[in-house]
Amino acid sequence: MIFWAFSFVWFKMANENFRPIAVVFLRLVLSVALLSPFLAFTNRFVKIRKKDYKLFFLLALFEPFFYFLGESYGLTYVSATVCSVLISTIPIFAAIAARIIFNEKLSSLNYSGIFLSFLGVVIFVINKNGMFAYSPQGIALIFAAVFSAVGYNLTLSKIVNNYNPVYIVNVQNIIGALLFLPLFMTMELKPIIQIDITFKMLLPVLLLAVFASCGAFILFAFSVRHLGILKANVFTNSIPVFTALFSFMLLGDKLTVQNFIGMLVVILGLFMSQRKSKNDISNRQKKQAKITPTS
């Protein structure tokens, strides 16, 4: 979540020299160039089962393709703050989808934590008048990214236990780069050829590739494997908080008392969403007792 919080800043920096499609395509190509040699060196390339071909394609179609289209163009209409609060609705929609499709249940305390964490984000970003500026186009595009992220999470949960997270991320980025290639060739190649690219211009794209397209997705895949979709997604609510803290430390932005209250509510909600109920603990103890051999 820290890496994804930084990605808002890096995207704004990259967008000063490259347009959205170019930023996304270049970061995907760079991420593949980094992960593929690592997988080859560690001998972690595996054969994808035929029944999983469709799942890997859906994974890449949802994210990076649809998600980055929505988020990247959405950021040209709304601020990073508004974008982050909308992105933080992912846990709510993921919880609804997981409940309907997988019948995945959480305790009432966990659901309360999800709601409280989102409420903390709203407290954090709302202004003194109880409003925030937005554009309808931007809101629509960001929500397209949100629903794409929900689809990504549901698909990821079906394959994350069968493949290494690093391998999953590399495959999704390869397919994603191929999906973006026609758009890049027709819309972005000519403008890029006409400019002299320097390392300083390319640096934010490289940071996006290393820490967002590689690091964040790999860590998130590990988290989904060990925590499940719902609990892993709740941490998305911490992104606006991290973004504001980084802006405070690096850019000199001011934090108000209201901001700090929002942060505390988000953190409290995160703790509540991860708590196991007494029934969950007792059920796990019963299962362990059955598994443990008698002496």
List the helices and strands and how they pair.
Blueprint: H1 2-14, H2 20-41, H3 53-74, H4 80-87, H5 90-101, H6 108-125, H7 136-159, H8 165-193, H9 199-227, H10 229-234, H11 239-251, H12 257-274, H13 278-291
Describe the structure.
With 295 residues, the chain is mainly α. It has one domain (2-291). It contains 13 helices and no strands. Helix 1 (2-14) runs antiparallel to helix 9, helix 2 (20-41) crosses helix 9 and helix 8 (165-193) runs antiparallel to helix 9 (199-227). The termini are far apart.
Quick take:
The chain is mainly α and 295 residues long. It has helices at residues 2-14, 20-41, 53-74, 80-87, 90-101, 108-125, 136-159, 165-193, 199-227, 229-234, 239-251, 257-274, 278-291.
List keywords for this structure.
single chain
Task: State the helix count.
Answer: 13
Low-confidence stretches: 287-295
* Main sheet overview: none
Helix- and strand-based class? mainly alpha
Q: Total number of β-strand segments?
A: 0
